[in-house]
Amino acid sequence: MTSPELLERLREVVGEEGLVTEPAQLDGYLSDWRGAYRGTAAAVVRPASTEEVAAVVRICSGDGVAVVPQGGNTGLCGGAVPDASGRQVVLSLERMRRVRAVDPVNQTITVEAGVVLQAVQEAAAAQGCLFPLSLGSEGSCTIGGNLSTNAGGTAVLRYGTMRDLALGLEVVLPDGRIWHGLRGLRKDNTGYDLKHLFIGAEGTLGVVTAAVLKLFPAVRSRATAWVALPSVRAAVELFGIVRALCGDRLTGFELMSRQSVEFVLRHGAGARDLFGAPHPWYVLVELGDTLPEAGLGGLLESALAEAFEREVAGDAVVASGSAQVDALWALREGISEAQNFEGPSLKHDVTVPVSSIADFVERTDRALREAVPGIRIVVYGHIGDGNLHYNLSKPEDGDDDAFRRRADELGRIVYDSTSSFDGSISAEHGLGQSKRELVADYKDALELDLMRGIKQLLDPRGLMNPGKVLPG
Ligand code: FAD
Ligand code: MLT
Ligand code: ZN
Description:
This is FAD-binding oxidoreductase. Residues 37-218 form the FAD-binding PCMH-type domain. Belongs to the FAD-binding oxidoreductase/transferase type 4 family. This protein is 35% helix and 20% strand. The protein is globular. By secondary structure, it is of the alpha+beta class. It contains 18 helices and 18 strands. α1 runs antiparallel to α3 and α14 packs antiparallel against α16 (407-420). It folds into four domains: 4-92, 2-Layer Sandwich (Uridine Diphospho-n-acetylenolpyruvylglucosamine Reductase, domain 2); 99-217, Uridine Diphospho-n-acetylenolpyruvylglucosamine Reductase, domain 3 (2-Layer Sandwich); 221-337, Alpha-Beta Plaits; 343-427, Alpha-Beta Plaits. Residues 76, 136, 336, 347, 381, 389, 391 line the site of D-malate.
């Protein structure tokens, strides 16, 4: 067990407010947003500065105690949840919420790791700028978590993932040293680009304490449409049409199966269907421009007219006014939460080349329906990035536990199919604890060896978020 003396030394660093040991207060830090993973911990430490983070990590390292970094705890693969030993310390960044600087000329913002994503978007908007990362969890997830998972979301098509949005990092290394890499440079060819080691590392190589992020010109006009489609193949064709016509103005292109939308209609407050009859697939398309009068509505209508002419689209609505735009996004963003009302949701966050998506869905759906007749396949996601959330729910009258027991077998079906199309078993959520063993079967052995070498170099004692990412 962790010694009372260790807790006393941690309290000396972070103060009374920074140390949580009461079981009732610990609870919220010990399981994830979905309640899919649960652990236990000796304490939660909440440092308020980079120096405090460094001191905490040094103390834990000296005593051989493992540290689990945690941001908003919205991760979907158990990366921020401690193990069951009760010996680990959760290091929450929630008291590090300062926007350190906004530089509109350099188009950068410097923030601490615990700043909530939405607060960064708002700080950028207050300067007439845009911070474009956009996720359903943006009201709770933090910049440290976004960097550590290399978060994607609904605007990757235009602006890239978190990796593309970061210019510099400040990181506390597993031995407590601080790497001061907070540079706001768009060009810096002085050797290996170390920040990329920590982005997407899910807290296994160090604790990110601050970052310099890119800003963009504010978007002043938007056009949003909801399009009904007969097939995934038609959705991919529509993507080609819109992209060819609208180029960089295309910011979002989100696919949803009818099953996904039905869950939101059933459980989402105020959600309503847009067309008289159900369609097998829907796409939410969004264009954006920095000009206030960019004529985006007309441009989108031209793209849709071409889609109708080529018999790609079945029906479409171009949103009129911000209330309707919000309602369309609520239909899309509500899927993840709505699925939780339908029993266990088995999540598979995969990517394949855009050109393979239609064949991939056809083949995977067929295999899943053969394995579990009546299975509800909740496919949706960022199809413009080749990224689908291939989530599964039990048959309508199925049993929760019986379905959960088949999780590994059903996961194999999805991942084997993904792999046969040269895809990845994690597009944006990471490996955490859920896919840590699985990755050994789908990733090149040399790549895994190099990853182990990097881990060994930075964290030879394996005390930084052990049991995550790397296969045991
Ligand atoms: P946490 O869950 O707290 O942690 C995630 C991982 O990062 C853990 O391994 C943790 O140890 C590590 N970590 C956290 N902070 C630090 C730090 N400062 N230093 C080092 N390591 C750290 N994700 C997407 O990519 N795209 C989406 O579209 C998307 N939509 C979502 C919608 C909903 C409704 C929900 C609930 C989640 C969604 N997610 C999505 C997943 C999740 O929100 C992201 O992974 C997010 O980036 C996690 O941020 P967080 O602060 O909650 O991190
Ligand atoms: C989303 O895009 O909504 C999430 O990344 C997917 C999920 O919650 O499975
Ligand atoms: Zn997603």
